[in-house]
Amino acid sequence: MNKKIKKEKEKYMGQKLLIVDDEAHIRMLIEQTLEDLEDEGVELLFAENGEEALNLIKEEKPNLVFLDVMMPKMNGMEVCQIVKKELKLSHVYIILLTAKGQEVDRQKGLDMGADRYMTKPFDPDEMLSVAEEILKV
Amino acid sequence: MTGQTDSKYYLKALKNILKKGHVSQQVLSDIAAKLGLNFGVIGYDENLLFGTVNEGFQSFDLSLDEIMYGRLLASDDNGRLLASMLMVLVEKELAKKKIGNEVLGLYREINMIYSFSEQISEKIDEKSIAEMALGEASQIINSTHGLFLIYEPKQNEVVELASFGLNPDREKNIHKLNILLKELISRGTSAIVPSDRILNNPALSHLKTIMYAPLKVKHRTLGMVMLGHSEEKEFTAAELKLLTTISLQSASALETAHLYQKGLQEAKEREEAIRSIHEVSQKFVPHEFIKFLGKDKLTEVSLGDLVEKEVTVLFADIREFTTISENLNPEDNFLFINSFNKRMGPIVRKNGGFIMQYLGDGFMALFPNGSQTALRASVEMHSELRIFNEERAVKDRFPVKLGIGMQNGNLIMGITGDVERLDAAIISDTVNTASRIEGLSKHYGSSILLTDNCKNNLTHPEEFDFRYLGPVQVKGKQKPIDLYECINGDSRQLLKHKLATLKTFEEGMKQYFMKEFAMAAVTFQQIVKKERNDSAAKLFLNRSAHMITQETGDDWKGIASISSK
Q1: Cβ atoms within 10 A of the Cβ of B441, count?
Q2: Residue B102: CB partners within 8 Å, gap ≥ 6?
Q3: Do domains B3-115 and B288-490 have the same CATH topology?
Q4: Residue B249 and residue B246: Cα distance in Å, rounded?
Q5: Domain CATH code at residue A112
Q6: Average per-residue pLDDT in chain B?
Q7: Superfamily of domain B288-490
């Protein structure tokens, strides 16, 4: 019987994805959106504010971070700047999430070292395919 | 859901709660330790999810609604407790997932509506709005048929803007449907149509279920959007709500498109009105005049604008107009003048000139390209006049005679008047002289008279034939002006005569200016004998005859002084 029991070979085994948003329902939505990735072995991590996010990034070194811009206790821009410019964690792929109508932040975000940028409300299908594309690399 | 997908789904929930860092991992381990239990969890696919398993462990099924999704293997019977607990946790996780899925579904809708309203608001034509609305609706609502209809109140007709999945006879069907559709549109509500009602309508019989939503703007209904399905499938209230939302967005996009088109149309009409005013104003003030002022439009000129330019000024005048007009009533007079002007204007323009002013019995034209063009126009005008006269002769009307005088020189063109009344004006001595020369044409009986200035300006004088008529003292001018007659505007008969006697005439003029008046009289007499209508020859015959008896001083230069205009 033991022989039959085997560890699954998962596509994205050992990869980590961090979801950062101060709004619980957005975190839940992203979790639900990226649910399929969990089956493929991606570990989903969550943070409710910038500080928490920064600590998790330092500890876990996630492969991909969905980072909300507007947050209490250190906003997304600051987190991004510290991760990319100070900690120089270039392999942590950061996607900034900004509300529609705040597109002016786009260039600022990219200047802070963000790898990509998405607007809320996000298209769930797009978010999933973007995440898959990045984790594949 | 089949048993297979169910167990997969349950397994996923199981995996979720056994995830690293999940609180249930810790709780399970703590309880097992207290019970002195070794255990492991495996999925129905026999993959180890948590803990360890050994040979001889007891197996406890993990199942929900009799669907097994995994097993808990434990070193003793207490494993049953852990299995029960795990099953409760899985159920909770499933409930959470369910809510999560519903929320995500709602979020998808919001996102769809958000991007839909953003995109549709950019559309400005009805058809693409309709197509986009149906495309979006068919993507999120499972349907096989779709119709986007608007009601045209003017024609009292329902018009299809877009559709999908309709059978080929749709036009016939829509016609049959017209009354029903009008009624539905007039209601302005959205509804799911029960299948029994559809079945009664032959035009819709291929559909099993239908729902529709109005295209409503404020209190007006512009039309409706309809979705149908050919299979047994009831639309849900949620789907109807989505369709209603799409309809509302489409309706306001339609309204915006209408307003946009209306604005466009109005702008076009305004532009057209301005253009026609511009066109008319050009007829009153020649465009060339405005161009000379360095402007493009009449609206750009202002009081005091002026420019100096060398041009040929041409005066054309209907001879004996007073006599003619005395015999006509005012209206006929006007008609006569217009029938004349209508023929002359195009000749002026054709030769690069423009008519600066109509003067009742004639006009003043300016030729910016010099006297060559003005003289060509003059000759053409005379030949056109002969055709005009032939036509008049057929109708038993009197022939019209035309006198043309030209002068070349500088001209100041400008805008004069006051702030309330502006006019295009030209100020120049050249104009006065040209007018006087034209007046002289009557005296000399010439069809075209020009000054030496004008003659010297010709680029191809060989195109024409001239007779020198001597110097003339023009009223208001200090210096006398040398006068030439261009004979090419004369009738064929007169031209032939003048050409034949060109040398003789020249001889006569020479004799006249050399004070050989008797000789000159004889010479001119020879010419007049051949053609009694040679007015200039007759004039010089008379002058010569008159001078024979006159005393002439050394300063006599034969300068004619003509007082009558």
Answers
A1: 25
A2: none
A3: no
A4: 5
A5: 3.40.50.2300
A6: 88
A7: Nucleotide cyclase, GGDEF domain (3.30.70.1230)
* H helix or E strand, kind and range, residue B403: strand B402-418
Q: Tell me what pLDDT residue B312 has.
A: 96
**Nearest residue in chain B measured CA to CA from A8:** B47
**In-domain check, residue A101:** yes
Residue A17 vs residues A64, A120, B147: alpha-carbon distances, Å: 5, 19, 44
Give the pairing type, strands B466-473 and B481-486.
antiparallel
The interface residues of chain B toward chain A in range 69-128, judged by CB-CB distance below 8 A, are 97, 100-101, 103-104, 107-108, 110-111, 114-115
If one looks up domain B3-115 in CATH, what number appears?
3.30.450
Asked casually if ipTM beats, i.e. exceeds, 0.95, the reply is no
Distance CA B416, CA B98 (A): 87
Cα separation, B147 vs B166, in Å, equals: 8
Residues of chain B positioned with their CB less than 8 A from the CB of A121: 107, 110-111, 114
Return the H-helix or E-strand segment holding B31: helix B23-34
Instruction: Tell me if A71 is assigned to some domain.
Output: yes
Q: pLDDT for B20-45, tens place per residue? A: 667 888 888 999 999 999 999 999 98
User: Which residues constitute the domain of residue A39?
Assistant: 16-136
B316 within 8 A of B362, measured Cβ to Cβ: yes
**Does residue A69 belong to any structural domain of this protein?**
yes
Report chain B residues whose CB lies below 8 A from the CB of A43. Answer: 19-20
Residue A8 belongs to some domain of the structure = no
E-strand ranges in B463-509 read 466-473, 481-486
Architecture of domain B123-261: 2-Layer Sandwich (3.30)
Torsion of CA B372, B375, B381, B387, to 10 degrees: -90
Q: Kindly list the domain boundaries of chain B, sorted by start residue.
A: 3-115, 123-261, 288-490, 504-560
Q: Please check the confidence at residue B543 and state whether its pLDDT lies above 90.
A: yes
B409 closest CA partner among B356, B370, B439, B458: B370
Q: Is the pLDDT of residue B174 over 80?
A: no
Number of folded domains in chain A? 1
Give chain B's radius of gyration (CA, Å): 51
